[in-house]
Design a protein that fits this description.
This is FAD-dependent oxidoreductase. The chain is an alpha/beta fold and 204 residues long. The chain is 36% helix and 16% strand. The longest helix has 25 residues.
């Protein structure tokens, strides 16, 4: 959203001045938004008490468009797959811009069944993946343990999805913070208490 001028109380009591874009929330999505806006020549301010904190510090970082497919969400599949296909190039650009490693790994995903209910669920997921034209391989418990020796002896089977990847959210957030700072993004380490809207536009 565009902001201009200085509005008391808009951002923790002090407001912003001269920013083209105000991003409220410095998580992964907020930081990417700020970075991209700054790359396009806009002046950007991010308001967050702890940029790069929050969910980014505890998330698993799964980039699993295939493994995390669910019934009723097939309409999202094309978007998820397209996003996953663009991720390696995004990571490469970010690591070059920040000089930091994001922990991106293209090692695939192994989803395992620990009991008969898990096995039935994964079998259903495998069938859905096949109907959706996705690549996944059903493995026996022994084959799963061959790939991952630390698995429990009782593993009943699993799915190997080579096209699903992962990233380290903590490293990703750190890289985004650095990239934003290098691109000239300003950070207000405070809570946004309210927005001031004038004539249908956020002004502070």
């Amino acid at each position: 959203m565009r902001v201009s001028g200085k509005t008391p109380g808009a951002l923790g009591g002090t407001g912003t001045s001269g920013s083209d874009v105000l991003v409220i929330g410095g998580g992964i999505i907020g930081l990417v938004t700020a970075w991209r806006a700054a790359q396009r020549g806009l002046t950007v301010t991010v308001a967050d008490p702890e940029p790069g904190g929050g969910a980014a510090q505890v998330a698993a970082g799964m980039l699993a468009a295939v493994t995390e497919l669910h019934y009723g969400e097939q309409m999202l599949l094309g978007l998820n797959l397209a996003s996953a296909a663009r991720y390696p190039a995004f990571v490469e650009e970010l690591e070059e811009a920040s000089g930091r490693d994001t922990g991106f790994r293209s090692c695939g995903t192994l989803a395992v069944a620990l009991d008969s209910d898990d096995r039935a669920h994964l079998r259903e997921l495998h069938a859905l993946q096949e109907r959706s034209g996705l690549e996944s391989v059903w493995l026996s418990g022994r084959e799963c343990r061959r790939l991952e020796p630390m698995l429990a002896p009782g593993v009943r089977g699993g799915l190997r999805v080579d096209g699903d990847h992962q990233v380290d959210p903590r490293r990703l957030a750190s890289a985004l913070l650095t990239a934003c700072e290098r691109a000239g993004v300003a950070f207000r380490r405070t809570t946004a208490e309210r927005l001031t809207v004038e004539r249908g536009r956020a002004t502070g």
